[in-house]
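Worked example 3 (structure in, sequence out).
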C-alpha cells in the first residue's frame, strides 16, 4: 500500500507554495578556467555553451552508454555548481577526479556546506523574493529552467536556481547548512510548509519526471528513460558513451528494447515498485514509481515496458489489475 498523501499539502503546492527538503542530494563545485571544456568531454549535454546564470541537465555515462548518474549543472560565473543523487555523489566525484590530467580544474564537495530546499508552486517566486536578499519576484519569475542567481540569507551567501524536476515548477534555494532551520521557519511564518516524501513524489510522478535510482539506474540507457531532449546534445563533440547513443539514434532510428511509460491503473491501490507489467501471461516490463494521483483520482505509475507495448492506449495488466499506457506527463501545467 502506498504511503498516504497529504491533500492539504498537495493543494498548497499546486495552488500556492510548498517546500521540499532536498538536502539528501549531493552538491559539488567544479572550478578552474577549464571547468566547462573538461565536463563537456565527459557529459552528454553542451557544457561549453553555458554562461553565467545558465545551466543544464545532463547524464554521465559509461563507455557502454549506461548511466552513472544524472546531473543538474549551474554556471555561477566563477564555478559550476553540480547536484546529483546523494547516494552516487562519491562515485561521481571519484570518476571526475580520475580524468583530470593537465586541465585547470578543481573539484570540491559542498554537500555538508549547503542545505538545499525547493520552494515550488505559483507563489514560490514571491515568497523567495521576500525572504532571500539580493533577489525579488520580478527577477525570479522570468528565470528559465536551470537559470540561477547568487543571493544571501542570514548574512551568508545563498544561491537560487530554477527547477522543474520537482513536478510543480519552482526554485531550489541553497543556504548555509546552519541556517537551514531558520530558512524553513521563515517559510513557515508565511504559511509555507514542508512536503512529506509521498506528497512530493506524487507531484514528480504526475509530471512524468524519472528519478535516478528509482526510474533509472546503472543499466539504463538515457534513450530508454525518455530524457534525450532534456539531457543530450545531438550537435556537440565527443563524450563518454556517445558512440552507443549515436549508433542507436542514427542506425537504429532511436529504437531501444524498452521504454519508460506512464500507466493509468484501475482500482484503488498503487502498485509497489518492482511489480511486473504483463501482457496476457508474458512479463513485458516492471513498475518503477507509483502513486495515488490527487489530480487524476486513481493510481498512476511510471514503468518500463517492451517497446512493442509502449504506444499510448495499449492495455496491459499490473498486479492482476487492468492498466493502460499513458502519454507523459500525466498532468500538464498551464
Amino acid at each position: 500500500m502506498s504511503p498516504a498523501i497529504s491533500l492539504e499539502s498537495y493543494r498548497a503546492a499546486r495552488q500556492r507554495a510548498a517546500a521540499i527538503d532536498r538536502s539528501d542530494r549531493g552538491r559539488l563545485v567544479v572550478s578552474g578556467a577549464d571547468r566547462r571544456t573538461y565536463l563537456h568531454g565527459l557529459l552528454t549535454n553542451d557544457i561549453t555553451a553555458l554562461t553565467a546564470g545558465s545551466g543544464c541537465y545532463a547524464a554521465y555515462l559509461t563507455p557502454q552508454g549506461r548511466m552513472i548518474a544524472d546531473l543538474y549543472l549551474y554556471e555561477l560565473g566563477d564555478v559550476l555548481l553540480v547536484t546529483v543523487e546523494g547516494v552516487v555523489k562519491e562515485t561521481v566525484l571519484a570518476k571526475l577526479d580520475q580524468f583530470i590530467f593537465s586541465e585547470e580544474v578543481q573539484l570540491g564537495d559542498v554537500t555538508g556546506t549547503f542545505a538545499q530546499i525547493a520552494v515550488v508552486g505559483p507563489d514560490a517566486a514571491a515568497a523567495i523574493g521576500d525572504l532571500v536578499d539580493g533577489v525579488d519576484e520580478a527577477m525570479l519569475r522570468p528565470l528559465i529552467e536551470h537559470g540561477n542567481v547568487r543571493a544571501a540569507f542570514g548574512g551568508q551567501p545563498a544561491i537560487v536556481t530554477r527547477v522543474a524536476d520537482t513536478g510543480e515548477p519552482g526554485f531550489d534555494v541553497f543556504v548555509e547548512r546552519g541556517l537551514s532551520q531558520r530558512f524553513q521557519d521563515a517559510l513557515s511564518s508565511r504559511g509555507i510548509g514542508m512536503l512529506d516524501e509521498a506528497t512530493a513524489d506524487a507531484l514528480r510522478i504526475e509530471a512524468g519526471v524519472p528519478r535516478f535510482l528509482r526510474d533509472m539506474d546503472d543499466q539504463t540507457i538515457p534513450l530508454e528513460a525518455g530524457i534525450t531532449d532534456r539531457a543530450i546534445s545531438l550537435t556537440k563533440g565527443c563524450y563518454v558513451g556517445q558512440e552507443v547513443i549515436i549508433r542507436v539514434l542514427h542506425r537504429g532510428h532511436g529504437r531501444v528494447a524498452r521504454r519508460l511509460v506512464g500507466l493509468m491503473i484501475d482500482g484503488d491501490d498503487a502498485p509497489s515498485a518492482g511489480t511486473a507489467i504483463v501482457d496476457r501471461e508474458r512479463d513485458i516490463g516492471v513498475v518503477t514509481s507509483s502513486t495515488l494521483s490527487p489530480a487524476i483520482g486513481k493510481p498512476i505509475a511510471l514503468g518500463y515496458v517492451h517497446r512493442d507495448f509502449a504506444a499510448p492506449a495499449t492495455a496491459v495488466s499490473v498486479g492482476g489489475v487492468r492498466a493502460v499506457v499513458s502519454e507523459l506527463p500525466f498532468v500538464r501545467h498551464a
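Notes: The CA atoms of residues 142 and 165 lie 17 Å apart. The two ends are 31 Å apart (CA to CA).
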